[in-house]
Description:
The protein has 24 helices and 62 strands. By secondary structure, it is α+β, with helices and mostly antiparallel strands. Strand 53 (881-884) and strand 54 (890-894) form a beta hairpin. The longest helix is centred in the first third of the chain and has 49 residues, at 28-76. Involved in spermatozoa motility. May also regulate cilium motility through its role in the assembly of the axonemal radial spokes. Its main location: other.
Amino acid sequence: MSDAEEPPLEEAEENGESEMEEDNTPNFEEAENIQRKSKEYDTLAWIDSQDEEEGEEMKRKEKKKAGEAQEEEESSGVQEETTVESQEITKSEISMEKLITGSQSAMSGTFPETRRGSESKHSLQSEGSKTKELSRVQSSQLRILDLDEISSEKQEVSSLERQPSGELEEETVSMPQDELGRGGRHLEPEKGKEGGDEKEKDVPSKAGISKESLVSTTSEDILFQKEEGTEYPLTMTWSFGWNSSLPVYYIREKNQRVLLYVCAHSAVIYNVSRNNQYHLQGHANVISCLCISEDRRWIATADKGPDCLIIIWDSFTGIPVHTIFDSCPEGNGIRAIAMTLDAKYLATISDAEIQVVCVWKWTLAVDTPACTLKLPGEYGFQKYLIFNPANNKELVSNSKTQAIYYLWNEERGTLTHSAPLLTEKTFNKLVGRFTQSIFHLNLTQILSATKEGKLVVWDIHRSPSSSSASLGTPYIKPCKLVHLQKESITVLTTVDSYIVTGDIKGHIKFYDHTLAIVNWYSHFKLSPIKTLSFSTTLPAPPTEKSNYPPNCTLKGDLFIVRNLIIGTSDATVYHLTTDGTKLEKLFVEPKDAVCAISCHPYQPLIAVGSFCGMIKVWDYEKKKYIFSRVFEKGLGIQSLTYNPEGALLGAGFTEGTVYILDAMSLENESAEPFRYSRASVTHICFSHDSQYMATADVSFTVAVYVVVVKSGKRVWEYLARLRSHRKSIRSLLFGVYLDNNEPRLLSLGSDRLLIEYDLLKSHKDNLEVLDIHRSGQGSYPTCMVWYPPLTKELFLLICNSAYKVKLFNSTTKMCRKTLLGPAYGSPIEQAQVLPVKTTRELQKRYLVFINRDKVGLQILPIDGNPHKTAAITCHPNGVAGLALSYDGRYAFTAGGYDHSVVQWKINLSALEAAVSLGGEDLTPFYGLVPGGREGKFYRELEDYFYYSQLRSQGIDTMQERKVSEHICLSEVPFVMRAIGFYPSEEKIDDMFNEIKFSEYVDTGTLIDKISLPDFLKVYVNHRPPFGNNMSGIYKSFDILGYTNSKGKKAIRREDFLKLLLTKGEHMTEEELSDCFASLFGLAPEGWKSEPATSSFKGAEICLEEELPDEITAEIFTTEILGLTISEDSKQYVH
């Protein structure tokens, strides 16, 4: 219930202060009436001229189509009769039926048909360029959306709604309430009905769109009647969390409560009544701003990042009706967006050092703005933008320090602005930082709210030649500083005849047009208000059962206002029913980064941990919140893991604390948490028997905890910890020894070390190391999982930064196979094997992975086939965590600083279908080499392959040649180098082991030769995934070299030779001599130079003559290695 009955003392003082400062304020009611009359006159004149222009255009088009229309009518034998009554439109009356029904039929003009709508939905699931291309095709198919007819009528609605509450009640209460909240629901005019004139009847034919268009024939309820398809391997089904820095909009209320908010790069339409979500997917970057039309039909979203998009959606169907590409050539994205009351125009402000204001005629399906304006940097960073509800040619925006008024001259295509500088000397008082600005209800002023609880009132000085301000150079001037309240104002908006504020203390206050307070809500004890959105449904007239509170005026009239949605800074969303003042908490989400997620091992539960110290547990099948716990301030959750039995939940915190919690109550399982680490705990895991728990932190330390029995009770105790790595720990993994079923513990670090610990020999404060192996060379590992038992040999699967997947024997730690992993813009960062529900599924396993911004599926076994994997963007700003449901039906991704967790439905049959379409045997691998099977590259490979047979038999032999389908193992490195791949000695050993032991487990024999198809697979899997490039060479010279006189990194000749002889895979002097002999053409062929053909006396003399004193990256590549550097791509080619 409102506090209006007994206002606090401080509020009364504020009200008094406000009224005193308003003594010199002009008569707002008189100004409003004058403005309304002049506006009605201009509006009606504009309607007449617009009707004449459109009538002439319609006549020209109808002449062309007359023949076709006549034939169609005769063939069908159907005569349509449309009764048209000519009505005289006066200055004070407009047909309300045309406003509600007829004008909205014009909105159905030119959207894609149902077929095109389905294509749009398909494009939403695509990724990257595929998404943009499909959207571009859709935009090109979109024709002109004719909203001209409703522009002036919408302005009339605004003038009715902005009358004082008494007049508003008299003029609107007789109308059906659902009509005003219906917006564009009536999209087709009824035949023969009054108000459905010829112009409205001809709109579909004018646009060239069938009446069966899904957008034009839909109703509000169709969005949640759709059956979401599962034709994609991964489909978003639910989003936990929301971007609390962006507003929440109240879309519909009459039949069911529906909200709109943003989660990462998707807009979510949430049906509170049905607990359903519909996701508007199409952005490749995080959505930075959004707006919605007055009737809640059209949604505009924009993102911030490379290749940013502006997408306009139909909220009734979820179809993207128009996409604006390249809205910011600088690639910085959009910071603020606004839509006119009639939904015809959009305005945007870019997110750049030099901000650009653009006005878009999006209904014309154009990709270029109607006008642009670059803002000087001294105006500050503009982050809020709004149109004048009564004049779609006027806008206002503000930064923290400056408010800007804009006037758009549509005829000239210009955008003029006025931005007077406001200082403390202007009013001789502290003004404060601006938060939001709006147009006053009287339409002649602008209000700017500040963090000091004040309102700056700006007078709009328009050109006297035209009340519509279409000519001249208008400007704004500060006229008054009103101290409304003590608290910082965070939200400023209007509804009906009220000006509404939300402040930092969670109070919501309503003022009339004279800025006198009418009512407020201050007893809810909310966090700072971030957003307010009012229902489109007018409040019901008071009855005997109503419980509206009285306002705080002397008359004490009932305070009747629409229901509203409240969003607060702690990521909580409320619904306030004003009749009875009932506040309902809709959802509470994490207000800080979400990095920790874990699924229960046998129940449909997921635990979500946030940096704000909150752990929430959800039932992900019912989409229902179960329970939560909020830890004390300063404790942020970094990692979460259920134990195999599902009874415990291990939690690692950002400041190093480790909790072991009861999984069903989140109460402490141990008396005190463990505080042995001083850094953030990034990994936590349990052994298969839940006897051990291990953690890893950002200080490269592994800690182990163990269960002991004390006084007949099982309790957890700290065992030992060890700083075992030199760089960050990427994976921490428990396993099982096959011979004795004892747990084993392994860790993998960015230092390329794979370490196994001896748990049996470890004791208090002493963690023993069993063995240490290096996992690779050059590239660093990113994650590690146990490979499922698809073969007789047990493997560890390790992914690395070079987009490779390596299989290591779990016992010997030998690299048994190197394979090309998924390459979707960044390497795999986490991976998990998908659980199975039945033993029948054990023969077909899958891997779920995440990289920097995507989640994907990979069919096992991995063999380098690119068609066996699929991925989709899940969190453009970075994925922080991955979890899988116990039955393998869902994958969950945590978005880190986008405060969200996304649930993905897994459809394995869709991925299998893609594999079958990709071809069998070697067909997918042919596509990975230039030109494919018939290309020049493969023909050269065949030549080298058979020339290698001649070389192995001897170049000068006179014996009969034996040509086979295989080459011996020793020839593999030479053929690799001949086709442009230069493996290190370690990589050559890995190739040899891979080929040699490929059949050893099954047959017990070693392979000493390889066929051409198998060679192609080895080549494709081992070579660099994106070809040769200069980045690695430049990086090496940056580390090893010095800066020469030309500013380039270089290595002296003596140092260069010393490095080759002593560092890395160092060479002997003989090998060095032979290598340079081959590079400089001093040896005819082969690795070993032949003495008879050598034309030099010694290595030193030759190298001094051939090598320059100073070697740069370019000299090394071109003059020593003999490669060519591409100027465009900075790649070197063989």
